[in-house]
Amino acid sequence: MGGRLSDGSAGDADYGTIGTDYSRYRRPEPRIAELIVQALGDARTVLNIGAGAGSYEPRDRDVTAVEPSASMRAQRPADLPVALDAVAERLPFADDSFDAAMATFTVHQWPDLAAGLREVRRVARGPVVILTSDPALLDRFWLTEYAPEVIAVEASRYPPPERIAELLGGAAVTPVPIPLTCSDGFGEAYYGRPEALLDQGARRANSAWSFVGRDVVDRFEQRLRDDLADGTWDARFGALRTRPTFEGSLVLITTGE
Q1: Where does residue 218 fall: left (phi above 0), alpha (psi -120 to 50 degrees), or beta otherwise?
Q2: Cβ count within 10 A of residue 147
Q3: 74: exposed, middle or buried (C-beta count within 10 Å: 0-12, 13-18, 19+)?
Q4: Model-level pTM?
């Protein structure tokens, strides 16, 4: 298992560098949050692993959050519990400490997925709920035409949902439709709002962009600007601007009790 980075980040992305405005762009999407709450069932005590700035933590449950990045911990709203500095592979809790556990947009950052999921199952006596992306479906997003290197990076980092389900001892994998006005700015959230991805801050809130070179970024910006200006993007993908939802790579993985 690799070492931690300067601000404590435990995965391959340095959130001390790229995560400074994370909470501005990665605000929880209510419709996705509701799916997570439903999957948690009647659990009262919930462990949130890789909790980040607190997106999707239910306010009506007793939540314990763990987050290795100091930058992420510092961005948590005042009404959320202070996150503990810990990593998924070494959770500082006794067996069966929580009714349920959740992890959103984080398992691709875990250096040792199997060890992390073993720990999650050890400390959660009830359901485990994981929001992640299916790498096999990332090419549904138009970005693959403009920055295939970014899609390739993402595909190499996200574990297949089937692998996660297997390591959990069995789980359901459910596609999650992405709303057109999605307030959580992960890449596919901009499927119908291409102009938003010209914002450097929006891209920085998606860690895959930190793994590609400046040449890739410059090429992407120039081509997208040109294609938006002359109507090329809209000729090919314009119908997405009014599509209420998009079924991309987003999935919810949920175990039983």
Answers
A1: alpha
A2: 23
A3: middle
A4: 0.90
Q: Which helix (H) or strand (E) holds 38?
A: helix 30-40
Q: Which pair of structure tokens corresponds to residue 125?
A: 């006596």
76-80 long-range Cβ contacts below 8 angstroms, 24+ apart:
76/23, 76/51, 77/23, 77/53, 80/54
Q: Are the C-beta atoms of 7 and 15 separated by less than 8 Å? A: yes
Backbone angles phi, psi at 66, to 5 degrees: -125, 135
The string of DSSP letters for 168-224 reads: TTS-EEEE-PEETT-SB-SGGGGTT-GGGGGSHHHHHTSGGGGGS-HHHHHHHHHHH
pLDDT in tens, 153-173: 999 999 999 999 999 999 999
Token pair recorded at residue 112: 């040792």
The pLDDT confidence band at residue 23, using thresholds 50, 70 and 90, is confident
- How far does Cα 238 stand from its chain's mean position? 26
Instruction: State the pLDDT at residue 83.
Output: 95
Instruction: Please tell me the predicted confidence (pLDDT) of residue 7.
Output: 44
DSSP classification of residue 10: -
pLDDT of residue 144: 98
Q: Which pLDDT tens digit goes with each residue over 63-104?
A: 999 999 888 898 888 899 999 999 999 999 999 999 999 999
Task: Tokens for 150, please give them.
Answer: 């970014």
| Beta carbons within 10 angstroms of residue 109's beta carbon | 23
Contact 35, 176 (CB under 8 A): yes
For residue 236, what are the contacts with CB-CB under 8 A and spacing of at least 6? 142, 145
